[in-house]
Amino acid sequence: MFTGIIKDRGTLTAISRKGGDARLTVSSSGLPWSDFELGESIAVNGVCLTAVALHEDGFDTDVSVETLSVTGLGQLEVGSPVNLEPAISLGERLGGHLVSGHVDCTGTVTSRAADARSIRLVIEIPAEYSRYVAKKGSVCVDGVSLTINEVSGNCFEINIIP
């Protein structure tokens, strides 16, 4: 489980395609990688992934064809920035929403506008997923847990605060 509170920004430093799957290497200097263990869950842009190798400055993870098909991870390139959040521990302060890291679909930003000190985004999702979106409900966008302001058809509005 995750909270949707990003702990660090990392960089995708390598992609190795294996059949329809991929192995990603992520580097980040803001997390204590020596404290991590193989098999731990780490959310990358909100997608729950498993560390299969650990490095001084990051980790490797295998990504299935299914995950590549329903998330934005398949469109990333070497050098892409990624949002990182280690899984929470029982008893840890949440600070956000409970987030599973199991992604159903990707959306498309259809509108972006300044809204006081924040940015308001309108995101369109596939129609078959719109019934799961509710005003004042929560949603994760690239791993950031957000409250939904408005819903209209298969679009919803959120604000990204500074």
Structure in words:
The protein is mostly beta strands and 162 residues long. The chain has one helix and twelve strands; from the N terminus they run βββββαβββββββ. The chain has one helix at residues 65-70, and strands at residues 8-18, 21-27, 41-44, 47-55, 58-63, 81-86, 108-115, 118-124, 138-141, 144-147, 150-152, 155-160. A six-stranded antiparallel barrel has the order 1-2-5-4-3-6. A four-stranded antiparallel β-sheet has the order 7-8-12-11, with no helix packed on it. A two-stranded antiparallel ribbon has the order 9-10. The two termini are 25 Å apart.
Give the structure's gist in a few sentences.
By secondary structure, this protein is mainly β.
Chart the SSEs and their pairings:
Layout: E1 8-18, E2 21-27, E3 41-44, E4 47-55, E5 58-63, H1 65-70, E6 81-86, E7 108-115, E8 118-124, E9 138-141, E10 144-147, E11 150-152, E12 155-160
Antiparallel strand pairs: 1-2, 1-6, 2-5, 3-4, 3-6, 4-5, 7-8, 8-12, 9-10, 11-12
Query: What is the tally of helical segments?
Result: 1
Largest sheet: 6 strands, antiparallel, barrel
Mean pLDDT: 94
Quick one: overall form? globular
Short key terms for the protein model shown above:
162 residues; 6-stranded antiparallel β-barrel; Elongation Factor Tu (Ef-tu), domain 3; 12 strands; 2 domains
